Amino acid sequence: MTIRVLLADDQALLRSAFRVLVDSEPDMEVVGEASDGAEAVRLAGEHLPDVVLMDIRMPGTDGLAATRLISADPALAQVRVVILTTFEVDDYVVQALRAGASGFLGKGSEPEELLNAIRVAAGGEALLSPTATKGLIARFLAGGDDGDGPDPARSERLGALTGREREVLVQVAGGHSNDEIAERLAVSPLTVKTHVNRAMAKLGARDRAQLVVIAYESGLVRPRME
């Protein structure tokens, strides 16, 4: 099955480089290119890509606004957005996750990392780099944009989870894969996947990245200020 990719970046040279890389893979194809967020939203509606590689800073409608529009459209529910950013410590990264992005990747990443990111996102997994997962997202989400602390509504929704589902959610928020969680909790990867899917359904999460957001915003997971 071919993974359909939409490229959104205001730099034509970068788009060309990404196109050559993506089209060189037998299981991927570029279905469109956008130079700004508004065009990315329009093309996403036209082509229904599996993954959008979205630059976060673009003129006019930026990547953050475009991600929010794509994620809010029921017709684009299967479209996954991976944010491309120059700086992983960018506050916009966390806002993008809240807006519905499935994760992000630094522009300085190796080609193999970018291709893996596309496959991971297309498979419905969260793409959160070790740098981000181990501290960046935790610190930003704990502080939040408004400094109000845990969201009571989010906290209340956690009551729908079983004890094991909460345990798995904590591990997901720590950036661990299903295999790693299975080893930590002494269960099978399939069992972990089942718990993750049930937690997503109960919490109304679009994907694993949204589970990470909920875990921190609800106060279930506290940041390690390392």
UniProtKB/TrEMBL annotation:
Organism domain of life: Bacteria
Entry-annotated residues carrying 4-aspartylphosphate: D55
InterPro entries per the UniProt record, alphabetical: CheY-like_superfamily (IPR011006), NreC/VraR/RcsB-like_REC (IPR058245), Sig_transdc_resp-reg_C-effctor (IPR016032), Sig_transdc_resp-reg_receiver (IPR001789), Tscrpt_reg_LuxR_C (IPR000792), WalR-like (IPR039420)
Domain Response regulatory: 4-122
Record's keyword annotation contains Zinc: no
UniProt keyword annotations, A-Z: DNA-binding, Phosphoprotein, Transcription, Transcription regulation
UniProt keyword Transcription present: yes
HTH luxR-type domain mapped to chain residues: 154-219
Any single Pfam family the record assigns to this protein: GerE
PANTHER family: TRANSCRIPTIONAL REGULATORY PROTEIN NARL-RELATED, TWO-COMPONENT RESPONSE REGULATOR
Protein name, UniProt field: Response regulator transcription factor
Source species of the chain: Streptomyces musisoli
